[in-house]
Design a protein that fits this description.
By secondary structure, this protein is α/β, with parallel strands linked by helices. It contains eleven helices and 17 strands. The strands form three sheets. It has an eight-stranded parallel beta barrel, surrounded by four helices. α7 links the parallel β3 and β4. α4 runs parallel beside α6, α7 packs parallel to α8 and α10 crosses α11. It is globular and about 75 Å long. The relative contact order is 0.13.
């Protein structure tokens, strides 16, 4: 069976389950499970940069052994301002850096380790990549985030209870020394320590440390609690993607829910844990000169954008710094090309200024005003909104937004156009919407469009309806 068919069947099963649950007594109140203000602000970022950088950049490895000499780390032309300038020009809203990967090497002079930039000799032992990048992000108006792996293949305490306190102290260094941090990325990887014991991570201690130092930071892991992994590294959220997730009894890494559950979320999940889609612009996560000709195409990246941001998730696109300490030219050029396509595609909402009415003929202008904070809340679980454009338009891309501060409720919808013979014809359909849904289809020319919300778990709030022509 093909993967595409498996995905189709999985989405169909979720929709059938949703349809069966709507009429039951399990109808969550709109105030039941909602995003925090920090999660809402995070979701509005939509698209930001991941930078994998460290000894692996110089050794050609994806997972270092921890036995590498710190001296291999020598980015002689490091320029974090170039990273920030590139991210901003690409339309990204922030940068998350691998401050410590599994090899244990710290890109800041940690007082908890002897495997850091201080021992590398780079910048005469006085360098601090976190400092340079956090300063550059502030200069360029970007948010700053950090990946800190709890796995440490170098630290002698790894594999003992004492290591949890070491790691918490590392977190405090990162979270108190570099200004505001919008996201703390916790990888759940867990390997054998030098004494052969597997580390039992104290996740409660780690979370308490993060909240005490950076209460506004969104915490990433397989199960959040701030945002979650989507079960793949392709940058692909599920066709059905709920921001709610059941996390009781689960944990990061091997204790995570099944990948398909992470990809779809849970309809009645007890926690709000939206998805983040991580993917690399190259085949690997760390820079390798042999992959200079394997940077993803603009078409691939646009598809990834539509299956991540366009499926109720944020896109975390990895752009690894090279051995000089700069974003390589092929990657930078591709990012600018993607920015051009996104700008050209979404610059002109063909539904802007349309006359919009509900099934009773009441005007509903807020769903085409370009303002996410204005929205229409239905009186029940179903809704029909009819748009009359100023003139016939040709489009091949639909954008829908649900006002998620009220919750996520839409479980099934379709969109139709009125043809020349006066017949309504469906041209797009789906399950969840969430913060943003983007659907591509064959070219349609019409003046009247009708959105039908046919299934929901509460009164849905539609914020925006957009019609566009894709620029590729």
């Amino acid at each position: 069976m093909s993967m595409s068919l498996l995905r189709t069947l999985s989405a169909a099963c979720v929709l059938l389950c949703a349809a069966g649950c709507v009429s039951s007594s399990r109808n969550p109140d709109p105030a039941d499970v909602l995003p925090t203000p920090e999660q809402t602000a995070w979701q509005k970022m939509e698209y930001y940069m991941f930078v994998h950088f460290g000894p692996n950049t110089f050794t050609g490895s994806e997972w270092g052994s921890g036995e590498e000499s710190p001296e291999v780390f020598d980015p002689e032309a490091l320029d974090c301002r170039q990273w920030a300038a590139t991210a901003r020009a690409a339309g990204m809203k922030g940068i998350i850096l691998t401050g410590k990967h599994h090899d244990g090497f710290c890109l800041w002079p940690s007082g908890q380790s002897t495997h850091t930039v201080r021992e590398s000799g780079w910048r005469d032992g006085k360098g601090d990549v976190l400092r340079e990048l956090s300063d550059a992000c502030r200069e360029y108006g970007l948010k700053f985030g950090v990946y800190v792996s709890p796995w440490d293949r170098n630290h002698p305490a790894y594999g003992t209870p004492a290591y949890n306190e070491v790691f918490a102290a590392m977190l405090r260094e990162v979270l108190t020394g570099y200004g505001d941090i919008f996201e703390l990325w916790l990888d759940g990887a867990n390997g054998e320590g030098p004494n052969g014991k597997k580390q039992v991570y104290d996740w409660e201690l780690f979370h308490e440390t993060i909240r005490a130092c950076q209460p506004g930071a969104v915490i990433f892991s397989d199960v959040g609690p701030g945002c979650r992994w989507l079960g793949n590294e392709r940058g692909e959220a599920g066709e059905t993607c709920w921001s709610r997730l059941d996390i009781a009894g689960f944990g990061p890494g091997l204790d995570a829910p099944p990948a398909d559950t992470l990809n779809r979320g849970n309809v009645f999940g007890a926690a709000w844990v939206p998805g983040e889609a991580d993917v690399s612009i190259r085949p690997g996560w760390f820079y390798d000169p042999s992959s200079d000709g394997e940077v993803k195409s603009v078409a691939e990246l646009f598809d990834i954008y539509c299956t991540s941001v366009g499926r109720n998730a944020n896109l975390l696109l990895n752009v690894p710094a090279d051995r000089r300490g700069r974003i390589p030219a092929p990657d930078s050029v591709r990012l600018m090309e993607l920015r051009s396509v996104l700008d050209a595609t979404f610059a002109d909402n063909l539904a802007a200024g349309a006359q919009v009415a509900d099934a009773d003929g009441n005007a509903v202008p807020v769903v085409s005003d370009g303002d996410y904070e204005t929205f229409r809340t239905a009186r029940g679980r179903k809704e029909t909104l009819e748009l009359t454009l100023r003139e016939p338009k040709t489009f091949d891309l639909l954008l829908l937004q649900e006002y998620v501060p009220r919750g996520q409720f839409i479980a099934a919808w379709n969109v139709e156009y009125l043809d020349a013979g006066g017949e309504w014809r469906q041209f797009a359909a789906g399950t969840t919407v969430g913060y943003k849904r983007i659907v591509r289809f064959g070219s349609v020319t019409a003046q009247k469009i009708r959105l039908n919300i046919t299934d929901a778990f509460g009164a849905p709030s539609v914020s925006e309806i957009g019609l566009y022509r894709a620029a590729l």
